[in-house]
Specification:
It is globular, with a radius of gyration of 18 Å. About 45% of the residues lie in helices and about 15% in strands. The model has no long low-confidence stretch (mean pLDDT about 95). It has helices at about 20-30, 50-65, 75-90, 100-110, 120-125, 130-135, 150-155, 160-175, 195-200, 210-225, 250-260, and strands at about 10-15, 35-40, 70-75, 95, 115-120, 140-145, 180-185, 205-210, 240-245, 265-270. Helix 3 (about 75-90) links the parallel strand 3 and strand 4 (about 95). It folds into two domains: about 5-95 and about 210-274, 3-Layer(aba) Sandwich (Rossmann fold), CATH 3.40.50; about 100-210, 3-Layer(aba) Sandwich (Rossmann fold), CATH 3.40.50. By secondary structure, the chain is α/β, with parallel strands linked by helices.
Length: about 270
């Protein structure tokens, strides 16, 4: 086994959304240690410029490198869309994003070749989902819809609130008219609204959760690079470290509502120093 195999995987997001990716990694790769960073002081990323997103992502990557991570997962669609290559240049470990795995599955699911993508303004603006989907099948039509209010509503914990349902109805109306049969939840916060989105779109539309697909891709990448942890069963709560740039208590409450393990300690750091 490679000597790096027991090092942790670094996972980062603009806030709590990346916990949906972390949850899938915990489920599918239970022997892997994880260091998670949520940039809660600077959320949301979706309305920020490309340069700002790249700057933030590089700072976080440098912080994660101080934790001796063996790979980095950019668990944020916006950062994956704009900063993936820059982060790869910044660190000497494998880096994967969430866009490509999600796009790949969407292509395999669609029957009528009409795929919708809901995401932040920045992810839609980048056109990356469209590019990846068209790369695999240029016959497919891609309908992108920015849903900027979803992130603050999820961060507020309003996943089943009538306000959120009303907002979702407005956002999704357009996509329903486009006759899509597959919808990519192109922001890591959105799987937390999955049931509501599914109800509004109806049974004829397949929802794609890139969080799940990213964990699968990560597992494949670790094996390919010979850095997968073996089957040593380590004590679960000691395997996971969580860091945020602000509001640690609020983050902890949210994390404990969606993760399979109870999180006791969350450290707040000044990521600007990296």
């Amino acid at each position: 086994m490679n000597s790096n195999a027991l090092s942790p995987i670094g996972v980062f997001d603009s806030g709590v959304g990346g916990l949906t990716v972390t949850r899938e990694i915990m489920r599918q790769l239970p022997n892997e240690k994880i260091v998670y960073f949520g940039d809660t002081a600077r959320v949301p990323y979706g309305s920020k410029s490309k340069d700002t997103i790249i700057k933030y992502s590089k700072q976080i990557a440098r912080f994660l490198k101080t934790k001796n991570v063996k790979a980095i997962v950019i668990a944020c669609n916006t950062a994956s869309s704009f900063a993936l290559e820059e982060v790869r240049q910044e660190v000497d470990v494998p880096v994967i994003g969430v866009v490509k795995p999600g796009a790949k599955v969407a292509v395999s699911k669609t029957k009528n070749k009409k795929i919708g993508v809901i995401a932040t303004e920045a992810t839609i603006r980048s056109g990356l989902y469209t590019d990846f989907i068209k790369e695999q099948d240029e016959q497919i039509s891609v309908y992108g819809k920015a849903c900027p209010l979803f992130v603050p509503l999820v961060e507020e914990g309003w996943t089943n609130d009538p306000v959120t349902v009303e907002v979702a109805k407005r956002y999704l109306e357009e996509l329903k008219n486009d006759d899509i049969d597959t919808l990519v939840l192109g922001c890591t916060h959105y799987p937390l609204l999955r049931t509501m989105i599914g109800n509004l779109m109806g049974e004829s539309v397949t929802l794609v959760n890139p969080a799940y697909e990213t964990a699968v891709s990560l597992g494949e990448m670790l094996l390919k690079n010979d850095i997968a942890a073996g089957n040593e069963n380590r004590y679960a709560s000691e395997m996971y470290d969580f860091y945020v740039s602000d509001a640690a208590e609020k983050f902890k409450r949210f994390a404990n509502s969606i993760l399979p393990f109870k999180i006791e300690d969350i450290s707040q750091i000044s990521v600007e120093n990296y």
